[in-house]
Specification:
The protein is α+β, with helices and mostly antiparallel strands. Helix content is 33%, strand content 30%. It starts with a helix and ends in a 7-residue tail after the last strand.
């Protein structure tokens, strides 16, 4: 495994550990080359099984997926199985193998890294950037992501929509008047600033709001922990935005989910 791929995998596992441990019903383990980060919140985003070592054959991948399904079976929550393309066995149709285990592809993700991202030179007109510190902005971090990604993350409000959670991490909310329209979070993970929860309300996208919120969150994080390198995992829509900000691709991933959970994510 290359250093860059190892960094990407480790950062994801570390970030999801910070997110999941905020939930009282969390369950986490590192077993036989798979990292399990389950919050217990009934949204797959908050429950992830991620292989962290290479599988050398289709049989190895199949067995790993079956073990993950068995591990998740009694957790009572939908979940994601996150593959890293660079760790998959060469010449194997991973989607076909995982289909045998009841898993189907949901979306791609791209691991990305930057040594430094410049700060906000000038926020878009009418946008005020606020640190998520009081109840309203902390809850907005969750609500904006729910609206942007079509997932009701509100069921996790008691874990990640609290002033307690955001006092430990950096959250920034972009406001237009009293309406919260965009947000970004930065978590400190093993010597890196990990960017997460980047979202903008559907009616306010493509206006530079997420870019500004993200740059400001990285600035605030740097004030706390120093100008550390930054890592994120981008959706297909976000990837070109981050490339323009100076991020480089370090890994490719596919999110899978049990077929029985499709339609409810």
């Amino acid at each position: 495994m290359s250093d860059r791929v190892a960094l990407s995998v480790g950062q994801f596992a570390g970030a999801w550990e910070l997110i999941c441990k905020a939930a009282p019903g969390h369950a986490m383990a590192d077993e036989e080359g798979t990292a399990y980060r389950f919050s217990g919140i009934p949204i797959p985003f908050f429950n992830v099984a991620m292989p962290v070592m290479r599988d050398g054959s289709a049989a190895g991948l199949r067995e790993r997926a079956r073990r993950a399904c068995a591990w998740a079976a009694d957790k009572g929550a939908p979940w994601f199985f996150l593959t890293t393309h660079e760790l998959l066995p060469e010449g194997v149709d991973a989607t076909a193998v995982l289909a045998e285990c009841g898993l189907a592809p949901l979306m791609p993700l791209t691991g990305m890294w930057a040594a430094k991202v410049s700060g906000v030179e000038r926020a878009p007109e009418g946008l005020e950037l606020r640190r998520a510190v009081e109840e309203a902005t902390c809850r907005a971090m969750v609500n904006i992501n729910s609206a942007a990604y079509g997932m009701d993350l509100g069921v996790g409000m008691g874990a990640i929509g609290t002033t307690r959670f955001w006092s430990e991490h950096v959250g920034v909310v972009g406001m237009r008047g009293e309406e919260a329209v965009s947000c970004t979070a930065v978590l400190q993970v093993d010597g890196h600033r990990y960017v997460a929860f980047v979202a903008t309300l559907p009616g306010h996208q493509r206006k530079g709001y997420a870019d500004a919120a993200m740059r400001r969150a990285l600035e605030l994080a740097a004030e706390r922990v120093g100008e550390l390198p930054t890592v994120l995992h981008a959706t297909a829509a976000g990837r070109p935005v981050y490339e323009r900000m100076g991020y480089e691709v370090i890994s490719e991933h596919t999110v899978y989910m049990e077929k029985r959970f499709f339609g409810g994510h």
